[in-house]
């Protein structure tokens, strides 16, 4: 049985990822950006994190390597400008990648669309720097687990998966037009617990590429003797309110075996975080986090089964507890790294009110995408005890008492 690809979900997420470039770039069209087009090759090692990748598959061979080809468009602030000095030569854009694991039948050859951002870590010479870059997007064309046709695949449970990547590399400006890059990165594919199984695929390896700069000048490759004036940052406390929702599948252990729930469960919640804005690139604070998790504390009983007319067999019935077992309220410490268009946030907290599954520590990783000055799109992920996937956090945020200055480019 083939799983239908949820096309509306792809459209929504891709639209959210493209928004900064279709709206904000249009607003900044009169600003001096350098536009770039790049190609990259990424040979990767696949971590053997589950039996399927270790060799318990149809071919009885481990899946140890992958290869990805990337095409990327980006724009960056010109060197020796105020924005360049504050954000360390930040650039941002979107890319398209083709990945193969050498096993199209069991894993597929996914295509990935993503947004990315990078900046300078250190400059050794006007033409040579050490940079970082992150990618975030959505990948399709996977071959997921199927009980009849792909039963060995315990790594991937969805045809559409999230894509996360981070790496560092050397950037060498060969000429006015061309940059050569070489470095390494780490990649993670998973579906955010929206399907089951969700072991995911993790890779690491090299990245080698060439970037063409359409409108870079020779003067951009020399060190300026004049440093642009950077206005003093007004330290202040702002307040972020995020409303989010998503869905998730649930696995319940019966003995040593984990059984997947027959359907998905809704998730909804909020974060309210007073944040101290320390400087242009750093803010931190404490967040009040509330969540309703429709999958929390679901359970099965051996004596309770129901007959499945479609398969002609009995299957275990999942029981849902009362709503008081599905609500939680927690406190978390938050830190955010602020860059043009995007903000990356991390959080560590614990639920002060919650039962069963909702007890213990939780971790939050979030990407905030600027919409207008005081609102943003929020794409986050919640983990429990540093290892157990919880749920996606897809939502909209609002910022109050925002005194962040407008940077002159």
* Class based on secondary structure composition and strand pairing: mainly beta
Question: How large is the radius of gyration?
Answer: 23 Å
> Helical stretch count?
3
Sketch the topology as an H/E string, one letter per element. HEHEHEEEEEEEEEEEEEEEEEE
Strand content: over 45%
Task: Specify the biggest β-sheet.
Answer: 8 strands, antiparallel, barrel
Main sheet: strand order = 1-2-3-4-5-6-7-8
Number-wise, the strands total 20
Give the integer mean of the pLDDT values. 86
- CATH class label of the largest domain: Mainly Beta
Query: Would you identify the regions where 5 or more consecutive residues have pLDDT less than 50?
Result: 1-12, 22-30, 303-314
Q: CATH fold name of the largest domain, please?
A: Porin
Give a verbal description of the structure.
- InterPro entries: Lipid-A_deacylase-rel (IPR018550).
- This is Lipid A 3-O-deacylase (PagL).
- Keywords: Signal.
- It is built from 3 helices and 20 strands.
- It is mainly β and 409 residues long.
- The chain folds into 2 domains: 215 residues, Porin (Beta Barrel), CATH 2.40.160; 165 residues, Porin, CATH 2.40.160.20.
- The strands form 4 sheets. Strands 1-2-3-4-5-6-7-8 form an 8-stranded antiparallel beta barrel. The protein has an 8-stranded antiparallel barrel with strand order 9-12-13-16-17-18-19-20. It has a two-stranded antiparallel sheet with strand order 10-11.
- Strand 19 and strand 20 form a beta hairpin.
């Amino acid at each position: 049985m083939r799983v239908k690809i949820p096309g509306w979900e792809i459209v929504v997420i891709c639209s959210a990822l493209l928004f900064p470039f279709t709206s904000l770039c249009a607003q900044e069209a009169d600003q001096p950006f350098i536009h770039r087009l790049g190609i990259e090759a990424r040979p990767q090692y696949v971590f053997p994190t589950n039996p399927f990748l270790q060799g318990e598959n149809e071919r009885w061979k481990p899946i140890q390597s992958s290869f990805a080809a990337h095409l990327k468009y980006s724009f960056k602030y010109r060197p020796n400008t105020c924005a360049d000095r504050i954000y360390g030569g930040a650039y941002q854009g979107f890319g398209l990648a083709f990945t193969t694991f050498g096993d199209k039948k069991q894993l597929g050859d996914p295509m990935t669309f993503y947004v990315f951002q990078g900046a300078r870590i250190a400059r050794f010479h006007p033409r040579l720097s050490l940079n970082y870059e992150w990618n975030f997007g959505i990948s399709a064309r996977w071959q997921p687990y199927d009980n009849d046709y792909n039963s060995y695949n315990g790594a991937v449970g969805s045809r559409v998966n999230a894509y996360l990547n981070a790496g560092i590399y050397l950037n060498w400006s060969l000429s006015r037009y061309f940059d050569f890059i070489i470095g390494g990165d780490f990649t993670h594919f998973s579906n955010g617990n929206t399907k089951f199984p969700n072991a995911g695929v993790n890779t690491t390896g090299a990245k080698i590429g060439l970037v063409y700069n359409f409108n870079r000048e020779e003067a951009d490759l020399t060190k300026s003797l004049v440093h642009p004036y950077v206005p003093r940052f007004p330290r202040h406390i702002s307040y972020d309110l995020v409303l989010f929702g998503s869905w998730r599948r649930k696995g319940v252990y019966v003995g040593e075996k984990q059984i997947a729930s027959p359907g998905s469960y809704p998730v909804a919640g909020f974060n309210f975080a007073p944040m101290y804005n320390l400087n242009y690139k750093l803010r931190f604070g404490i967040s009040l986090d509330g969540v309703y998790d429709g999958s929390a504390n679901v359970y099965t009983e051996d004596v309770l089964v129901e007959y499945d007319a479609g398969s002609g067999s009995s299957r275990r019935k999942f029981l849902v507890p009362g709503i008081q077992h599905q609500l939680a309220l927690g406190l978390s410490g938050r830190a955010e790294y602020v860059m043009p268009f995007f903000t990356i946030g991390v959080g560590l907290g614990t639920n002060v009110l919650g039962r069963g599954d909702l007890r213990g520590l939780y971790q939050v990783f979030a990407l905030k995408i600027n919409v207008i000055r005081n609102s943003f799109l929020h794409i986050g992920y919640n983990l429990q005890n540093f290892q157990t996937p919880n749920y996606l956090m897809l939502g909209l945020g609002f910022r109050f008492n925002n005194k962040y200055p407008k940077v002159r480019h």
